[in-house]
Amino acid sequence: MSITTENIKEIVKESYGQAALRVRTGGSLCCGSGAACGTDADPITANLYDEKQKQGLPEEAVLASLGCGNPTALAQLNAGETVLDLGSGGGIDVLLSAKRVGPTGKAYGLDMTDEMLALARSNQARSGIENVEFLKGEIEHIPLPDNSVDVIISNCVINLSTNKNQVLKEAFRVLKPGGRFAVSDVVTRGEMLPEIRERVLLWVGCIAGALEENEYRAKLIAAGFESVALEPTRIYRIEDARAFLSGQGIDVDALAPQIDGKFMSAFVRATKPVGTCCGPSCCKA
Q1: Whole-angstrom Cα distance, residue 258 to residue 252?
Q2: Which of 115, 133, 153, 284 has the most CB atoms less than 10 A away?
């Protein structure tokens, strides 16, 4: 199957729609399709949220987490701010952010999958958290005005896009001057092997769409961001790779020297410069 923008988007949408339905029937999820899925051994999604954070959240919000990090724990969020989660899934990071910004703030979740949006809205209703709104749309075309958001978070979603330049351009557009980009994502160290990149289903597994770390920095700078920083939060070793490449027709042992330590979850930070605006309603510093 050749990799095209449309078939990747449809595969991602179908996969995450099915994931939402599995959660509603009592299943559990992980980022890839390996043998570790649904267990604490899953190398990407396991143990991202502590018990204190999970307290008071619906179990389905926790089960629906398909992230690779915990941006709400690492991002600076202040009372009264507006937060946008790109690819909000079951809503766990939106609900956690809403708590952090308080009743004078607001947390938006953006997702393109009807089933995930339905699950997220159900989780919001069950949580009783009111300063939340879930929007349907694509992260390449954010349905919010220019200069309207203080912080953008995301959890292992930007790597799934086939047009990351457009995603970062949109993120820059909707952030207020001085706004912060604070996302968790899977990135690579060095160029990714074609054997992995060309397997289209691994785009859903948070692997094949991952940017090389220096390319990620360069794309953020090209979009207009400053103070770009990338902090590794989990570096995956060969046994982790074995778990998330299992069943993909890849000889993991043969590729071990080129895989070990080349994939990592990272917290990516950047800032929209003060005095920089987008659109006709441009603000002044």
Answers
A1: 10
A2: 153
CA 97 to chain centre: 14
Confidence of residue 256 (pLDDT cuts 50, 70, 90): confident
Average pLDDT, the chain: 80
Cβ neighbours of 221 (radius 10 Å): 13
> Which residue, among 150, 153, 108, has the nearest Cα to 133 in the 3D structure?
108
Strand partners, 152: 84, 181
Alpha-carbon gap, residue 283 to 285, rounded angstroms: 7
pLDDT in tens, 175-208: 999 999 999 998 888 877 777 766 645 544 566 6
Position 227: which residue type? Answer: S
The model's pTM = 0.80
| pLDDT confidence bin for 6, thresholds 50/70/90 | low
Residues 106, 111, 114, CA angle at the centre, nearest 5°? 120
